[in-house]
Write a structure and sequence with these properties.
Blueprint: H1 2-14, E1 19-23, H2 34-42, E2 46-56, E3 60-66, E4 71-77, E5 80-84, H3 96-101, H4 124-127, H5 151-164
Parallel strand pairs: 1-5, 2-5
Antiparallel strand pairs: 2-3, 3-4
Helix pairs in contact: 1-2
Length: about 170
């Protein structure tokens, strides 16, 4: 939460944008939530798990996203955020000519003083409601239940499953 909030503050201080591209996740917290949280803080649409950019349009972007059991093609209006799967693209070094072309490029530097929220309790460990205590690979549970029937039967079946699992 604190990381995404900080990044949102920096993005807002940087000015207007059309598209924010994030990696899917990092190896430190490993939650894969920062990209989506940034989009929520900015109140913009987002698509996670993008494995291909299909088309870039004037007012939108068309992407392919890998979901658990399906691949979806989605069009999202700008401004928006996407998180990219690691195999979506292979980074490459710029050519020598391109390096020379941009060697004197200056980047806007954003400091804490440029952020609109100056409350230090919203950043870093102070701003984080969680702490990573242990990382592990979760057990894979691919058990699925498919329900059929009319609406009344479906409601009864879902209620029964929720009660059996002590979720209701």
């Amino acid at each position: 939460v604190a990381t995404s909030y900080t990044m949102m503050q920096v993005i807002k201080a940087s000015g207007d944008f059309d598209l924010i591209i994030c990696g899917k996740q990092t190896t430190d917290g490993d939650t894969a939530q920062v990209g989506a949280e940034i989009a929520e803080h900015l109140n913009i649409p987002h698509v996670c798990y993008v494995n291909k950019i299909i088309e870039i349009k004037d007012k939108s972007i068309v992407v392919e996203a890998s979901l658990e059991e399906t691949i979806e093609t989605l069009e999202v209006n700008y401004p928006c955020l996407i998180t990219i799967e690691k195999d979506a693209a292979t980074p490459r070094l710029p050519s020598y000519k391109r390096s020379l072309l941009f060697k004197d490029t200056k980047f806007k530097q954003i400091t804490f003083n440029d952020l609109s929220d100056k409350d230090e309790n919203h950043y870093g460990l102070k701003g984080s409601p969680t702490r990573v205590e242990k990382m592990f690979n979760p057990e894979i549970n691919d058990k699925k239940t498919f329900l059929t029937g009319d609406n009344d039967k479906l409601v009864d079946d879902v209620k029964k499953i929720l009660m059996e699992n002590k979720l209701l």
